[in-house]
Amino acid sequence: STEPIRYVSASASVNGTLVYATGGSLNRYQLTWFDRAGKPLGTLGDGGIDANLSLSPDERHVAVALRTGSPENLDIWTIDIARKLPNRVTTDSQPEGWPVWSPDGTRIVFGRRAHAIGGPPEKARLVQTPVNGTGAKETLFEAVDTPSRPCGPQQCALGPTDWSSDERFVLYMFTGTFPRTQDIWALPLFG
Length: 191
Description:
Layout: E1 10-12, E2 18-20, E3 29-34, E4 40-55, E5 61-68, E6 73-80, E7 85-88, E8 96-101, E9 107-112, E10 125-130, E11 138-142, E12 156-163, E13 169-177, E14 180-188
Antiparallel strand pairs: 1-2, 3-4, 4-5, 5-6, 6-7, 8-9, 9-10, 10-11, 12-13, 13-14
């Protein structure tokens, strides 16, 4: 997704001139470091990164959603900043994005979009996985159909935005495409 819900690439001048960017292709971003004056210091990764990223609490890794493969799929990767080494975290066929680090830096929570291309329908979910790859992924929450938010194939997405410092809540966006809605929710991870 190119974030069509929240962002519009348009600007109008005082004299009424409108400038806009047309859609149609996915934006490919390059992670770039800048100093405080705005001068580029260098890049990280090979580009092709989706718009969502998350810096680890120790600031030694970055988690990103990266489009790779043929057919292309969106998966979660981490990049070791010092060594510039990528590590693939997810390999499922469903699109996954919006990675957020746990406060202790051992886990990542991410969103999985409702999807059904070439397989059975998948519900939109919030999933957590250990970063070191030694444990299983755990579904924290599945979107359910409601009259105001149908959640059929490709109709909704769950995107985590933050994890509370006490590790008790994950904040996330619930986005529906028809009708178009977007709400912020808090998911308790206790009880």
